[in-house]
Amino acid sequence: MSTKMQWVYTEKVKDHFVNPRNVLDDEDSFGADGTGMVGSMACGDQMLVAIKVRDGKIAECRWKTYGCASAIASTSMMSEMVTGMSLEEAYHITPKQITEALGGLPEHKFHCSVLGDKGLRAAIDDYLEKNGLENPFTKSVANIVCECVGVTDQAIEAAYKAGAVSYEAIQKATGAGTVCGKCREKTEAILEEMEHLYGKNHE
């Protein structure tokens, strides 16, 4: 029997994992304009994204993580992709775009790619808040999950962060799934993602 390990990722993923770009070595000396922390050590992945902003664009994007190869590679790739982008463009970058740039990720590792884009959004949110600027991007990235009541994924995320960490608690907090119930599968998938990002006992 061969004991040689098999690499199941693309060569781009391997490159960004072995030679990650834009790693944040020293947070204090970087002098970030905005920072965002997402993830949960309880779930095994945690991500810090730091940005510098010049003339409404991402001048530099640095990051550090406690995470798997997929999380490292996807955030390394993201940091290259968003450098030079406007804040609006960067805010709307998706895990799918990052994954495609890497040539794909194993399906069970796709959730790792959301760490980078969530961390980036949090860093942009932080930058705007620190500078007393209105955030014009939030509504444009919200998706309707429960059509009967008009509940968005962002409303579910906000409820989760406020302590509603079960489907029943989300129903009570937002009204999602209280009419026809067809959105339950989508809602539970978002809850799984939130648990990965923030931990179940984050509150």
From TrEMBL:
Listed A to Z, the keywords are: Iron, Iron-sulfur, Metal-binding
Is this entry keyworded Nuclease? Answer: no
Q: Name one GO biological process term.
A: iron-sulfur cluster assembly
In this chain the NIF system FeS cluster assembly NifU N-terminal domain maps to 9-131
Leader sequence range is none
Official protein name in the record: Nitrogen-fixing NifU domain protein
> The BFD-like [2Fe-2S]-binding domain covers which part of the protein?
144-193
Protein source organism:
Sediminispirochaeta smaragdinae (strain DSM 11293 / JCM 15392 / SEBR 4228) (Spirochaeta smaragdinae)
* Pfam families on file: Fer2_BFD, NifU_N
Cite a single GO MF annotation. iron-sulfur cluster binding
